[in-house]
Task: inverse folding
């Protein structure tokens, strides 16, 4: 590699650029130190000038921090029956799978999806590790709202709690449920006598039945959501439902879940190994 030596123009330009970067990095700190250490001889006008420059500098750094717009009904889109067919036709030959998912999202505007709908799908795609989800239902509750999502590549619905802190919470994430409280309850322990392998499974959502909401402690908000209990597998005997409250503060901050109770198992059971509705 060629070396820059002496006082050539190239060396001077290089040094000037380096000095500019260093100055830009150190400017806020130097400015604040100047205000703090300024002597009375500078006079009130000079100190006020430094203070004004400090305010302008800090405000400039804050301009890049914007609050995202709340998810709302403008992001709802009902894909037609032909959407999945056309998406597969355009994307089936795309690989790897992540590029396939992105290709499917790219088909949404072509099929009539709004910019807000596409933006939501992009945001959910990043959070769900490459899962393509389309917002097909929205119910404002405040400060946290309810969203139904359709996952077109697996033809299922998902339930989300949105616009709180965090911004998107997947209500089908069983790891967030108070399973310890459920397992320690006499109801669950009694149910194990009838269904030895009983456990929680993600909800069989229809995309239409909205969860109940109620006021929580200290003006907070609670959602009551049920989850199927099955005896060992997704299609095994149905053992009822476990109910949990999803708890939020008055400002919408997620506070965890609480086991609420259980509904009884159906009186009659289809044979094990058959799909349950």
Result:
């Amino acid at each position: 590699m060629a070396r820059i030596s002496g006082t050539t123009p190239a060396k001077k330009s290089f040094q000037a650029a380096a000095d500019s970067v260093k100055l830009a990095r150190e400017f806020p700190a130097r400015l604040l130190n100047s205000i703090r250490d300024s002597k009375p001889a500078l006079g009130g006008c000079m100190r006020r000038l430094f203070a004004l420059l400090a305010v302008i500098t800090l405000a400039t750094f804050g301009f890049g921090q914007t609050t995202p717009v709340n998810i709302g009904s403008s992001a709802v889109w009902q894909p037609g029956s032909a959407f999945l067919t056309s998406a597969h036709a355009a994307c089936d030959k795309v690989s790897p799978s992540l590029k396939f998912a992105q290709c499917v999202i790219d088909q949404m505007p072509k099929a009539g999806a709004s910019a807000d709908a596409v933006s939501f799908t992009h945001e959910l795609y990043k959070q769900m590790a490459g899962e393509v989800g389309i917002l097909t239902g929205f119910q404002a509750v405040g400060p946290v709202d309810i969203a139904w999502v359709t996952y077109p590549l697996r033809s299922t619905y998902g339930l989300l709690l949105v616009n709180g802190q965090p911004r998107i919470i997947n209500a089908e994430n069983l790891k967030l449920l108070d399973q310890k409280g459920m397992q320690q309850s006499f109801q669950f322990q009694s149910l194990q006598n009838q269904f030895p392998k009983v456990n929680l499974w993600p909800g069989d959502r229809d995309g239409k039945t909205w969860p109940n909401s109620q006021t929580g402690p200290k003006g907070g908000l609670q959602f009551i959501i049920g989850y199927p209990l099955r005896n060992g597998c997704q299609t095994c005997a149905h053992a009822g439902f476990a109910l949990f409250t999803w708890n939020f503060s008055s400002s919408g901050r997620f506070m965890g879940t609480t086991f609420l109770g259980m509904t009884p198992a159906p009186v009659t059971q289809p044979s094990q190994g058959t799909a349950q509705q």
Notes: The first strand starts at residue 134 and ends at 139. Helices lie at 9-37, 43-62, 81-91, 97-107, 115-127, 179-183, 186-194.
